[in-house]
UniProtKB/TrEMBL annotation:
Residue ranges constituting the Cytosol aminopeptidase domain according to the UniProt record: 162-461
Natural source organism: Cypionkella aquatica
One of the record's GO molecular function terms: metalloaminopeptidase activity
Pfam families: Peptidase_M17, Peptidase_M17_N_1
Domain M17 aminopeptidase N-terminal: 28-145
Keyword Hydrolase: yes
Recorded family membership: Belongs to the peptidase M17 family.
Signal peptide coordinates: none
Protein name stated in the entry: Leucyl aminopeptidase
An example Gene Ontology CC term for this record: cytoplasm
InterPro entries, per database record: Leucine_aapep/pepB (IPR011356), Macro_dom-like (IPR043472), Peptidase_M17_C (IPR000819), Peptidase_M17_N_1 (IPR048816)
Keyword annotations: Aminopeptidase, Hydrolase, Manganese, Protease
GO biological process: proteolysis
Amino acid sequence: MEAVGSGQLAKDTPMVPVFAEDAAVARPLYVVAADALDDFLAAQPDTVREWLTGSGFAAALGDLRLIPGAGGVVAAVVGYGNAAARARTRFALAKAVGLPAGAWRLEGELTQAQRDEIALGWLLAQYRFDRYRRVKASEATLVLPEGCDGARLLAMAAGEYLTRDLINTPAQDMGPDQLEAAFVALATRFGARAKVVKGDALLEQNFPMIHAVGRASPREPRLLELHWGNAGPSLTLVGKGVCFDTGGLNIKTAGMLLMKKDMGGAATVMGLAQMIMQLGLPIRLRVIVAAVENVIAGNALKPKDILTSRKGLTVEINDTDAEGRLVLGDALALATETPVDVLISMATLTGAARTALGPDLAPYYTDDTEMAAALESGAAQSFDPVWRLPFHTPYEHIIEPGIADLDNAPGWGFAGSVTAALFLRRFADHPRYMHFDIYGHTPADAPARPKGGVGQGARAILAGLPAMLGL
């Protein structure tokens, strides 16, 4: 374990999810729906039936019972509830990851989608953030259920683990330097090409808004870029990497406690990139991350400053706490300077998105209905809920202040996520562009999602890519 404040990556070897290898010795984990309980009990030996009925087992969703036998626990039964209960809770059976040590195999009448959800939930529930304290890991493993694509499930879980590690690490150990190190390490692991532009070189290479947001920090702002794959359709992912956000001179009066997660967009596109590269998808992948800290110093960006962006658009700064759209603006301008088939940005951008949809549902924007349909299908397949919000063009005038081309924080009081998305669309200027305004944090422990950093939308995108890119 690295010492606190070491400035190193969280782990020399990233934690990786696994399935059980020795299926021959796996004990059964019976999954029993409420409407199938009577038939299940009738098929059991008297001792098992009496044990389950005597303990009050009613097949409620997630209710786990261990079955004793000679030499210890010989099996387990977990309730699968009814359809209404299952619709209310994703990954409800992930609590079974607390089973006794050893290999377990699923038994029960399950659809393929149900087996996929249980297997993915099991993997995600194994995640532990153990950089600063010892956390007991589960010693129970699951045999890959029948019909499941193990490579795909493991890639999704591994990408999610990376995202969670990055978001969970506090800013003292996950500033622009460490985010760069993690980014380069990811590129190296998969044989990708990485490029870094930082400090005053940002001005020399025309990234003025990234430089302006991050210049007040002693940890230099930077642009990170990764290229992977030499053939196939092209996908560019752009992530907001604000490693900590004080709000700048418009200092946050509330909500600063969670601002280590303001690089959640960067963490999520990096996790998605890992999934893509681990699976070897036949595409050309480009990842762009703007990594900065938004802090206070004498040279900090000031309210009413006017910046000239990489794209040439001028931006009046009406709130230094609306910095994410500034760094993304330069990054998106770079992304569209070369041809790309699909462009996606991800950012923890607005509180308005949280107010509208809460912490669990990831809002996204696109003008391309086919991309939206592909994403919605992918979200259902990968148990990764999303919700489409509109690029409402009649609101364009709200982000035009008169003194400059654009206003970074119009203070209108309405549709804050929509106006932020419209701001970004000016820089993306691409017909097949999709933007996610994510939260990146689970506020309380939930099945397969412990309190803390979490990826949103990445699995949905991964599942939707074949349709988006014509694979």
